[in-house]
């Protein structure tokens, strides 16, 4: 019986070869997209799975409830009090900085080593990397202790058994206490060396408001995170508020409202990469991931729709076969099983082809997402095969039941070809297919418009021809290093101007603090700078004046602010110049001398935040944060100028260190990469969807028009022109397309409006994508169907009318 079913299946595959190819193609494309996105999702979910303590480690995120914003930072005293006051919290670790680099000197070699971390001393209690040499006990107890990875050990010593060896950098001799091997699994916490943030921890021990650290808590295995979060508020945040509220002249509750944290969120370590609200090491994009996964499933649905449509359209060709089989005793269940088997064979063949295509596309996919995914996860095969079975069941069961319900007597009389059974089913499924196609066209056009809007937006500054060079050697007085280099590098041929700014476009190396005026507080970004930095970046002055090197007060407490700063305090421009405010990072009042036009140095997804700018000598600590020098390069011979700058830097400034530089405009352009990739993906998916849908439409229209060839022959005999016949044959499909687009418009509007809500600078919902979707789908439908309709007008009249 099975052998007979397979023979019948392959006879029908051959007979309807176009439909078979279209089904294979659509399902292969859909399954390939599904597997690639599924591997991408699984890869994002796999971070920190290697850690044996992951189930008890939670990342801390503070919550600003009023603005519903999250931050990954905490202060040292808050974390320390939490572990003392909350029994469920067993331990904590702080992360001060990551991505550090030093020129390290050993007795045999000098080399630059990057990707280091400074942490609190119990780091290895949380991240127990495989120990190769030394001991984790007291590994980070002292100021000059260092633990290194096997890669760093080989780079510096040529071997891994180097516990007890000495490394000189940052002005001190460090002793290697442990050598570890980094995990093979995905991890964002993979330092090549780890040192104790000794001086910073020492200085911040009583700094309740110095939110300078990322934090992980080790919780008891039975701890309820909701309970712990409540205790963090009651026993830690409120405690700090009570200590400081009296001095601020407010109640503890008001203090929390003004200065926070007002709440917290604890997220398991292995969920932070994709599901975290704010992560010290950078969060993934769950929303985009869900969109991509949904779109890949929609493509599979389109492929299944093709299958259902084509199977039901072929009904008349199988009617007599079914009638004969029923007449000789075959029951409905056997017929359903036979048609399900035919569907499964096609789906399984598509699955095999999809596996091969996925393997071929995977290198390009990895390059696009900057990943190293390999097809070695059994879950990919399991879930994709489960999807194949589901598709086979759904897309096979509907036409199987439909075909199995044919009446033997009616089909054996040959009346089925003229019946209207199945028309509503086919039209309904075709409408759904075109609704999905219309949505993809609309979505693709709106995404492209939004990305173009962001790319074309006036940022309020110009980073063109501005090159930033980052300091690496952690000079003890970096501001003096900058001042020396500023004068020397101006002399390099091709350098037009030199300046320094802490808040650099496309970077996040600047700080946030409360700004207090009377009973009102706002939070603002603050960036130290040289006198000329804002003019250097072509920022526009709205009112007042720039900082002046001739005025001593401009290095004491005079600042410039942006328009948003003034608006958030509720001042007009004149009031801003009369009022003084106190920033949370200093004890003295600051005076506004200039207001600059708003300009965006972050991603255009976010609104311009309040910002203040002041000279780096205005505070006792900001001068130690001077970390770059910026050079405006003349347009003539830019390549030659860059080479001269690099040569000077490596010879005279930081020999032995890598030359870390970038152009500001290119650095800011990186903030668009995510959205440009979304645009590319939507375009690719849109092309795939249209291809699958139009091929299905062509095959379906071919089958349906073939069923009308006798009608065409009769009408042509009666004098109908070719144009009249083509319009008559395509009219039904054009009406279906029109209805589908009309249905898709409100759905697309709602979904794309939700997507646009993520952008502070968004386009107004345009009309043209909806109009263009309608026009393009009508044209494509007419073009696809009219090809077969035109062929139908050339029928052999004798062939179809000789028995009439």
Q: What key attributes describe this structure?
A:
26 helices; alpha+beta; 6-stranded mixed beta barrel; 23 strands; ABC3_permease_C; 51% helix; 4 domains; elongated; 804 residues; 12-stranded mixed beta sheet
Main β-sheet, in a few words?
A: 12 strands, mixed
Overall structural domain count: 4
Q: Mean pLDDT across all residues, rounded?
A: 85
Shape: elongated
Protein name: ABC transporter permease
Keywords: Cell membrane, Membrane, Transmembrane, Transmembrane helix
Membrane topology: Multi-pass membrane protein
Organism: Chryseobacterium kimseyorum
Would you give an account of this structure?
The protein is an alpha+beta fold and 804 residues long. The protein folds into 4 domains: 1-48 and 301-421, no CATH class; 66-223, no CATH class; 428-457 and 674-804, no CATH class; 466-671, no CATH class. Helix content is 51%, strand content 18%. The chain has 26 helices and 23 strands. Helix 10 runs antiparallel to helix 15 (423-456) and helix 22 packs parallel to helix 25 (768-792). The longest helix has 38 residues, at 332-369. The protein starts with a helix and ends with a helix.
Task: Tell me briefly what this model is.
It holds the Pfam family MacB_PCD. This protein folds into 4 domains: 1-48 and 301-421, no CATH class; 66-223, no CATH class; 428-457 and 674-804, no CATH class; 466-671, no CATH class.
Sequence-ordered SSE layout with sheet pairings:
Blueprint: H1 2-15, H2 17-45, E1 57-64, E2 69-71, E3 73-74, H3 76-85, E4 89-105, E5 110-119, H4 123-126, E6 130-134, E7 145-149, H5 150-157, E8 166-169, E9 172-181, E10 193-196, H6 198-203, E11 213-219, H7 225-248, H8 252-259, E12 263-268, H9 272-275, H10 286-313, H11 315-327, H12 332-369, H13 378-404, H14 408-412, H15 423-456, E13 466-470, H16 478-489, E14 495-499, E15 511-517, E16 520-529, H17 533-536, E17 541-544, E18 558-562, H18 563-569, H19 573-578, E19 580-583, E20 590-596, E21 611-615, E22 628-633, H20 638-653, E23 661-663, H21 664-669, H22 673-706, H23 709-717, H24 722-756, H25 768-792, H26 797-801
Parallel strand pairs: 5-10, 7-9, 16-21, 18-20
Antiparallel strand pairs: 1-2, 1-11, 1-12, 3-11, 4-5, 4-11, 6-9, 7-10, 8-9, 13-22, 13-23, 14-22, 15-16, 15-19, 17-20, 18-21, 19-20
Helix pairs in contact: 1-12, 2-10, 2-12, 2-13, 2-22, 3-7, 7-8, 10-13, 10-15, 10-22, 12-13, 15-22, 15-24, 15-25, 22-25, 24-25
């Amino acid at each position: 019986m099975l052998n007979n079913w397979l023979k019948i299946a392959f006879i029908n595959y051959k007979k309807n070869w176009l439909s078979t190819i279209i089904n294979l193609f659509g399902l292969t494309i859909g399954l390939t997209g599904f597997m690639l996105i599924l591997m991408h999702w699984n890869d994002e979910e796999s971070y920190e799975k290697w850690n044996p303590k992951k189930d008890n480690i939670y990342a801390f995120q503070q919550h600003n409830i009023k603005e519903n914003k999250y931050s990954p930072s905490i202060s040292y005293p808050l974390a320390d009090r939490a572990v003392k006051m909350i029994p469920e919290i067993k331990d904590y670790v702080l992360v001060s900085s990551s991505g550090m680099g030093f020129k390290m000197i050993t007795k045999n070699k000098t080399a630059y080593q990057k990707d280091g971390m400074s942490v609190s001393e119990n780091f290895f209690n949380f991240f127990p990397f495989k120990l190769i040499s030394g001991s984790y006990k007291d590994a980070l107890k002292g100021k000059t202790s260092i633990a290194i990875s096997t890669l760093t050990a080989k780079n510096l010593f040529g071997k891994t058994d180097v516990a007890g060896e000495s490394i000189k950098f940052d002005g001190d001799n460090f002793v290697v206490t442990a050598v570890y091997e980094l995990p093979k699994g995905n991890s964002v916490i993979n330092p090549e060396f780890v040192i104790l943030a000794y001086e910073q921890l020492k200085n911040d021990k009583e700094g309740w408001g110095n939110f300078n650290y990322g934090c992980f808590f080790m919780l008891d295995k039975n701890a309820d995170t909701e309970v712990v979060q409540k205790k963090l508020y009651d026993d830690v945040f409120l405690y700090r508020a009570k200590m400081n509220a009296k001095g601020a002249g407010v109640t503890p509750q008001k203090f929390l409202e003004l200065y926070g944290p007002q709440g917290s969120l604890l997220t398991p370590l292995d969920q932070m990469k994709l599901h975290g609200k704010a992560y010290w090491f950078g969060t993934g994009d769950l929303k985009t991931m869900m969109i991509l996964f949904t779109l890949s499933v929609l493509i599979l649905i389109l492929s299944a729709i093709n299958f259902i449509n084509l199977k039901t359209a072929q009904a008349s060709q199988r009617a007599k076969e079914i009638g004969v089989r029923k007449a000789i005793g075959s029951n409905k269940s056997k017929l359903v099983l036979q048609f399900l088997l035919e569907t499964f064979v096609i789906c399984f063949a598509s699955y095999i082809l999809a596996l091969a295509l996925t393997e071929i596309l995977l290198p390009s996919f990895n390059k696009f997402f900057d990943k190293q995914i390999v097809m070695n996860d059994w879950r990919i095969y399991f879930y994709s095969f489960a999807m194949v079975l589901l598709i086979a069941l759904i897309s096979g069961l509907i036409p199987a039941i439909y075909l199995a319900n044919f009446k033997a007597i009616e089909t054996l009389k040959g009346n089925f070809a003229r019946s209207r059974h199945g028309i509503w089913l086919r039209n309904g499924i075709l409408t759904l297919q075109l609704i999905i196609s219309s949505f993809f066209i609309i979505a693709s056009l709106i995404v492209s418009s939004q990305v173009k809007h962001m790319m074309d937006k006036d940022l309020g500054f110009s980073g063109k021809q501005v090159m930033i060079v980052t300091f690496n050697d952690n000079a003890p007085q970096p501001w003096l290093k900058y001042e020396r280099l500023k004068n020397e590098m101006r002399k390099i041929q091709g350098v037009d101007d030199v300046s320094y700014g802490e808040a650099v476009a496309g970077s996040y190396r600047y700080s946030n603090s409360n700004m207090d005026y009377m009973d009102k507080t706002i939070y603002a970004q603050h960036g130290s700078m040289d006198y000329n930095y804002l003019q250097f970046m072509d920022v526009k002055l709205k009112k007042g004046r720039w900082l002046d090197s001739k005025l001593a007060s401009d290095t004491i407490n005079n600042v410039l602010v942006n328009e948003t700063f003034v608006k958030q305090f509720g001042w007009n421009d004149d009031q801003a110049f009369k009022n003084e405010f106190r920033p949370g990072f200093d004890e003295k009042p600051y005076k506004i001398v200039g207001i600059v036009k708003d300009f965006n140095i972050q991603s255009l997804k976010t609104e311009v935040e309040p910002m203040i700018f002041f000279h780096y000598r205005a505070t006792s600590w900001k001068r130690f944060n001077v970390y770059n020098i910026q050079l405006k390069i003349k347009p003539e011979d830019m390549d030659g100028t860059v080479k001269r700058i690099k040569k000077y830097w490596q010879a005279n400034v930081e020999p032995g260190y890598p030359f870390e530089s970038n152009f500001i405009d290119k650095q800011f352009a990186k903030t668009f990469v995510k959205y440009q990739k979304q645009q590319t993906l939507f375009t690719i998916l849109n092309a795939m969807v249209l291809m699958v849908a139009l091929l299905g439409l062509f095959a379906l229209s071919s089958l349906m028009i073939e069923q009308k060839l006798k009608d065409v022959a009769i009408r042509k005999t009666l004098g109908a022109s070719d144009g009249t016949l083509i319009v008559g044959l395509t009219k039904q499909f054009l009406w279906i397309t029109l209805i589908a687009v009309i249905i898709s418009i409100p759905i697309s509007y709602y979904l794309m409006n939700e997507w646009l809500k993520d952008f502070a600078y968004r386009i107004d919902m345009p009309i043209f994508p909806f109009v263009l979707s309608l026009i393009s789908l009508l044209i494509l439908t007419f073009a696809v169907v009219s090809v077969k309709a035109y062929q139908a007008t050339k029928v052999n009249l004798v062939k179809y009318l000789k028995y009439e």
